[in-house]
Amino acid sequence: MFNISEVDKGDSDLARLVSELDVFLSELYPVESNHCLDLSAVSDEQLRCVIVRDEGNAHAGCGALLFHQNGSAEIKRVYIRPEYRGKKLGEKIVSAIEGIVSEKNSRLLQLETGIHQQPAIALYRKCGYEICDAFPPYTADPLSVFMRKELP
């Protein structure tokens, strides 16, 4: 059984997960194609974060939601520790993030992921996201995949 909850961007378990994600991404992509968000550089009003914990309260995964000035929102920092993959935690994180977006009355949810992250791309497709062109603040990048979903 897993528990998903919202946490402050300064949460120490969240920081450990984001650090692991940064190491993972740095092995897959060059710096110029690594679009990592520094959570501490974003205001509390623009950012919401979630974390998944197992029954023993160990942190298994995380995700974040960045609200843009234009009313859209962006999924950021989704990560599942390797030992917890295959347990549908990605779907739980995306669902929690979509719930937060609905609370804010945003309808457009976007994301950027990388071409070497095929399981992530499959997850987002399964959750109803479609490939789209790059959106601000990004520019087209051959190592990036941009996706979007209109929420009801």
Which properties best describe this structure?
single chain, 152 residues, alpha+beta, Aminopeptidase, seven-stranded mixed sheet, 3 helices, 7 strands, globular
Return the CATH class of the domain at 2-106.
Alpha Beta
Helix content: 25-40%
Report on the biggest sheet.
Answer: 7 strands, mixed
Mean pLDDT: 95
Spans of at least 5 consecutive residues whose pLDDT stays below 50 are: none
Keywords: Acyltransferase, Transferase
GO molecular function: acyltransferase activity, transferring groups other than amino-acyl groups
Pfam family, one: Acetyltransf_1
Domain N-acetyltransferase: 2-152
Structure commentary:
- The chain has a 7-stranded mixed β-sheet, with helices on both faces.
- The protein has 3 helices and 7 strands; from the N terminus they run βαβββαβαββ.
- The chain has helices at residues 12-28, 89-103, 118-126; strands at residues 2-7, 47-54, 59-67, 73-80, 108-114, 130-132, 144-150.
- Helix content is 27%, strand content 32%.
- The chain has a domain at 2-106: Gcn5-related N-acetyltransferase (GNAT) (Aminopeptidase, 3-Layer(aba) Sandwich).
- The protein is α+β, with helices and mostly antiparallel strands and 152 residues long.
- This is GNAT family N-acetyltransferase.
- It holds the Pfam family Acetyltransf_1.
- InterPro entries: Acyl_CoA_acyltransferase, Bact_Acetyltransf, GNAT_dom.
- Keywords: Acyltransferase, Transferase.
- GO terms for molecular function: acyltransferase activity, transferring groups other than amino-acyl groups.
